[in-house]
């Protein structure tokens, strides 16, 4: 099995990576062992190595770097995101400037349509959505606001993902756009989920149909994996993919571990399992240049088993005579993708977080490591802040 994993290693990484095996000489030790080569692990590896002068070993159990943002050229030579559409957006100038050291960007503003019966309507709900759905002619923000206010059902307090939507747009629009999608995505009714989940999606009275309004919205020009290659390409960094932490943890390779996998897994699920939502993808290539009008179509109806369909060429700008799409299905089983925001899960996480605070030999970062429904830019911000804390605690070889 080890041999098989190592084969994947050499196939998946460019030659300039110094890929070792987990059977290392006792003298081959590191300042840090970083578990996970996604944004959290890779940003920390880069900072510790390049800024801190530390020697770092990064392992990931997947056969590639990049974590959930990993992209690659499929059999038709079309750049696709293996784990679903990843659109970079942030309001943080610092985060954008930091990542810009490793990639140029392609400006891209994301737009999504929701399939409702035969109609494809802008989501987030905006004035165009209302006019098309109800055959209206709302001509101003004020008219749209009045239309929504007539339907909104005030909820006090606003606690759940159902409350958030109902209080803005009322029960009918809630059922049309949110109820089914959320049940499919999370396996829970919106009334069982923290309000923060559907609060990610605003309601608009104007005709702005962009999914995000952040100051910086762009895709890494050569793709995410390319950007990660540049981040991790440093003499102080060794990358071992296809390697689970479980195979390394007893080898004493480093005094300090940075863990970006599920925190409950690190502690042997001692307080019980934290629930994570998983996803399954089916990828297809079609013999047409373009299949969809926008990158993503959401399917709020429970009659359709998937939640969304993505056509990647919209995101990447690639010119190609064929096109690749993916269907996204949520599932309870499989690799963890999403922490599930609800009070009882947060309480369980707090037990792990309290235990983690007592441990000086390990630091938890990232979406799985801190059980937070974070976007990429938030994970980068969290990793940069973690680096500053470690630097202050452990010092660096270089004067900073
Ligand atoms: P991950 O990327 O999950 O990396 C953790 C890594 O740790 C994984 O590669 C895993 O294999 C490895 N690992 C775990 N346990 C072990 C172990 N025991 N041993 C070895 N390795 C281990 N964010 C946005 O900003 N915009 C978007 O459009 C967007 N779209 C998304 C769409 C989907 C379908 C999903 C799932 C997420 C999306 N996100 C998006 C969020 C984004 O993916 C995350 O914020 C970010 O990738 C998290 O980085 P991370 O390093 O914390 O975690
Ligand atoms: N959501 C929905 N209908 C939609 C889009 C989103 O009900 O058409 C809800 C759903 O609960 C989803 C959440 O809003 O999980 C957040 O959506 P987002 O697109 O941010 O999810 P992600 O890209 O993180 O999967």
TrEMBL record:
Which GO terms fall under molecular function for this chain's record? Answer: UDP-galactopyranose mutase activity
UDP-galactopyranose mutase C-terminal domain boundaries: 177-373
Q: Which residues form a coiled coil?
A: none
Flavoprotein keyword on record:
yes
Where does the secretion signal sit in this chain?
none
Q: Which cofactor does it need?
A: FAD
Q: Does the UniProt entry include the keyword Protein biosynthesis? A: no
**Keywords of the record:** FAD, Flavoprotein, Isomerase, Plasmid
Q: Which domain of life is it from?
A: Bacteria
Its Enzyme Commission number(s) read: 5.4.99.9
Similarity comment: family membership:
Belongs to the UDP-galactopyranose/dTDP-fucopyranose mutase family.
Instruction: Tell me the protein's name.
Output: UDP-galactopyranose mutase
Q: Which organism is it from?
A: Rhizobium indigoferae
Query: Which residues of the parent protein does this chain contain?
Result: 380 to 779 of 785
């Amino acid at each position: 099995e080890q041999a098989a994993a190592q084969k994947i290693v050499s196939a998946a990484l460019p030659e300039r990576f110094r890929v070792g095996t987990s059977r290392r000489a006792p003298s081959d030790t590191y300042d840090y062992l970083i578990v996970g080569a996604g944004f959290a692990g890779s940003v920390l590896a880069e900072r510790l190595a390049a800024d801190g002068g530390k020697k770092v070993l990064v392992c990931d159990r997947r056969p590639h770097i990049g974590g959930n943002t990993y992209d690659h050229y499929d059999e038709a030579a079309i750049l696709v995101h293996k784990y679903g559409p990843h659109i970079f957006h942030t309001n943080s100038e610092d985060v954008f400037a930091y990542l810009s050291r490793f990639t140029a960007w392609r400006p891209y503003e994301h737009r999504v349509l929701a399939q409702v019966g035969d109609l494809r309507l802008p989501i987030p709900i905006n004035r165009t959505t209302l006019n098309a759905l109800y055959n209206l002619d709302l001509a101003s923000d004020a008219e749209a606001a009045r239309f929504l206010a007539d339907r909104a059902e005030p909820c006090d307090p606003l606690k759940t993902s159902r409350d958030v939507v109902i209080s803005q747009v009322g029960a009918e629009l809630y059922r049309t756009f949110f109820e089914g999608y959320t049940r499919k995505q999370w396996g829970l009714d919106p009334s069982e989920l923290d309000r923060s989940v559907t609060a990610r999606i605003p309601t608009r009275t104007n005709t702005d149909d962009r999914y995000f309004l952040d100051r910086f919205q762009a895709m890494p020009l050569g793709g995410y994996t390319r950007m990660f290659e540049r981040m991790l390409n440093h003499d102080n960094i060794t990358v071992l993919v296809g390697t689970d932490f479980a195979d390394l943890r007893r080898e004493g390779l480093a005094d300090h571990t940075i863990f970006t996998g599920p925190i409950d897994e690190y502690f042997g699920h001692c307080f019980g399992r934290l629930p994570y939502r998983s996803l399954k993808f089916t990828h297809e290539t079609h013999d047409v240049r373009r299949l969809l009008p926008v990158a993503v179509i959401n399917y709020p109806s429970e009659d359709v088993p998937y939640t969304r369909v993505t056509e990647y060429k919209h995101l990447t700008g690639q010119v190609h005579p064929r096109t690749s799409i993916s269907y996204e299905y949520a599932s309870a089983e499989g690799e963890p993708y999403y922490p599930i925001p609800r009070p009882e899960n947060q309480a369980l996480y707090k037990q792990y977080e309290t235990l983690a605070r007592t441990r000086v030999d390990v630091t938890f970062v990232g979406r799985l490591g801190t059980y937070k429904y974070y976007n990429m830019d938030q994970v980068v911000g969290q990793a940069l802040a973690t680096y500053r804390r470690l630097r202050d605690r452990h010092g660096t070889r270089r004067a900073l």
